[in-house]
């Protein structure tokens, strides 16, 4: 066990030093916290898989502080990439490119001829990468299969004793992970919806893009995601009255995650977690709610409000579908 240190934003130079020494440092981004290590240090990268309990064939993204840093690994960035970078970086968009031969160790990419790159919109983290002078790998800083961390506390819960430190910059703003788009083939393919919507991307590229959930494509496909001990169920809007009646009959601990408006309409919830007003606040709070009801309250079941799959709703529903295994609440 090592001591996991908490760094304040103004202590980021110390965190950068640890990265240079091959240590693991969790870092803030606008989406979720990431688990960083020098992407050019194979030994350090191996330890990231260990700390997360992540299968070795599930590749890591490479987190950079400038588009220039990407060129070292891919050569000239293709036209789609340049357009998207200009519009959305730094920001919640991960781009997959073909890499130059031997540019990255196979341990980073899972042996793929491509790699995923991201420049997060967080000044402290951009500074850390700049000071370290090296790109860092940046998977979400949760134990593999568990909900992504949106606070330093979440990271500490999963990673205490396994990593050298956490840079704490408060709760993340977006709350769901970045949109991933694969630009390595003939057509751009979105493999994970995020805060940058499909429409926004199509507007910039001027062409239609494919949406292939990572269930079907990425190596990540075969693994469980956002999988708490509690059973998670989605609730259709028209069912809340029925849910309220049903809750009266339950002795098991059932947590409810919904907007204030829905929560106010229920009389029989004993355990609730507010998703705020709308899909923005719901996305920001989603992982925190699942973690709270699962880890702190030991709920047996968690019922969660659905949102229309438009804009940020694409990302929110993608995470909810995964966390629930696509199961919807019904009286049966
Ligand atoms: O918002 C985010 O993207 C966060 C923050 C910390 O930056 N990071 C994140 O990393 O969500 P992670 O590892 O949890 O998710 C990245 C996904 C994984 O599902 C991985 O399989 C996929 O990206 N990926 C990485 N490299 C890939 C590649 N070369 N081809 C296809 N998929 C890839
Ligand atoms: Mg993850």
TrEMBL record:
Main location: cytoplasm
One GO-annotated biological process of the protein: regulation of translational fidelity
A GO MF label: ATP binding
GO cellular component, one term: cytoplasm
Gene3D superfamilies, A to Z: DHBP synthase, Threonylcarbamoyl-AMP synthase, C-terminal domain
UniProt-annotated binding residues for ATP: 54, 58, 114, 118, 140, 148, 192, 226
Database matches in SUPFAM superfamilies: YrdC/RibB
Binding residues for L-threonine: 31, 178
Residue ranges of domain YrdC-like in the record: 9-196
Compartment annotation: Cytoplasm
Function: Required for the formation of a threonylcarbamoyl group on adenosine at position 37 (t(6)A37) in tRNAs that read codons beginning with adenine.
Recorded family membership: Belongs to the SUA5 family.
Cited PANTHER family: SUA5 (PTHR17490), THREONYLCARBAMOYL-AMP SYNTHASE (PTHR17490:SF16)
The protein, known as: Threonylcarbamoyl-AMP synthase
Phylogenetic classification of the source organism: Bacteria, Bacillati, Bacillota, Bacilli, Lactobacillales
